[in-house]
Amino acid sequence: SQKIEQNSEALNIQEGKTATLTCNYTNYSPAYLQWYRQDPGRGPVFLLLIRENEKEKRKERLKVTFDTTLKQSLFHITASQPADSATYLCALFTGGGNKLTFGTGTQLKVEL
Amino acid sequence: GAGVSQSPSNKVTEKGKDVELRCDPISGHTALYWYRQSLGQGLEFLIYFQGNSAPDKSGLPSDRFSAERTGGSVSTLTIQRTQQEDSAVYLCASSLALQGMGGNEQFFGPGTRLTVL
Q1: Angstrom distance (rounded) from CA A101 to CA A72
Q2: Are B79 and B65 in contact (CB under 8 A)?
Q3: Could you give phi then psi for residue A84, rounded to 5 degrees?
Q4: Which of A36, B7, B59, B100 could form a disulfide with A44 if both were Cys (CB 3.0 to 4.6 A apart)?
Q5: Which residues in chain A are closer than 8 Å to B35, comparing Cβ atoms?
Q6: Among A81, A87, A83, which Cα is nearest to A104's?
Q7: How far apart are the first and last CA of chain A?
Q8: How far, in Å, CA of A20 to CA of A88, rounded?
Q9: Using a CB-CB distance cutoff of 8 angstroms, which residues of chain A are in contact with residue B104?
Q10: Strand blocks (E) in B51-108
């Protein structure tokens, strides 16, 4: 069956460290993958999109990698700050059109 | 302009009642999506509208759920004869039209929290 797996356990890290979140998928062949941030009581906010022919994408302190052989994407936040604390969702474009399938998300807590 | 808006922000209803949830997408966005998010769960796709094409209803969990989009803009999600398991946050998102296989970011509204007693 098709699955998108993100670590369900919260990730706690110290301010200034690099946070690395994992998104694994099975039985999909996505052309591209997106990462979103969701704060409590709010809708997700788009962060980055990476295509299957791109190995890495960067935006400010964010970096995403996409390994279609391992069927895995890694999401990195460097020099993390308490304001980065949120739930991070990966999403794959699957099926036709513009439909996204989301992972369950990983909660990140950045502590002082 | 403004982002995606949804109303109401909260809705409490009794089991068996019908509810209507509204979504106003970003002007010019031809694609509109409805998702459901239960506590501690990921986003569950419900339905997708793209321009004048027939909607993709493949995610609707039962025939009690329906949605329409009038004039290519505002959308209403209707849940008939609500059940307690329908309690969740219902999120709406919009995006520009898909161009090739490039992908488009989705802009989400704040959601409607539905509680069925």
Answers
A1: 15
A2: yes
A3: -80, -10
A4: A36
A5: 102
A6: A87
A7: 41
A8: 11
A9: 98
A10: 65-69, 75-79, 88-95, 107-108
pLDDT for B1 equals 56
pLDDT digits (tens, 9 = 90+) for B51-83: 888 898 989 999 999 999 988 799 999 999 999
Q: In what order do the strands lie in the sheet with A72-77?
A: A3-6, A19-26, A72-77, A62-67, A56-59
Handedness of CA A63, A67, A70, A71 (dihedral sign): positive
Q: Which residue has the tokens 């990983």?
A: A106
Contact A45 B108 (CB under 8 A): yes
Contacts of B109 in chain A (CB under 8 A): 43
pLDDT at A53: 87
**Cβ of B117: how many Cβ atoms within 10 Å?**
10
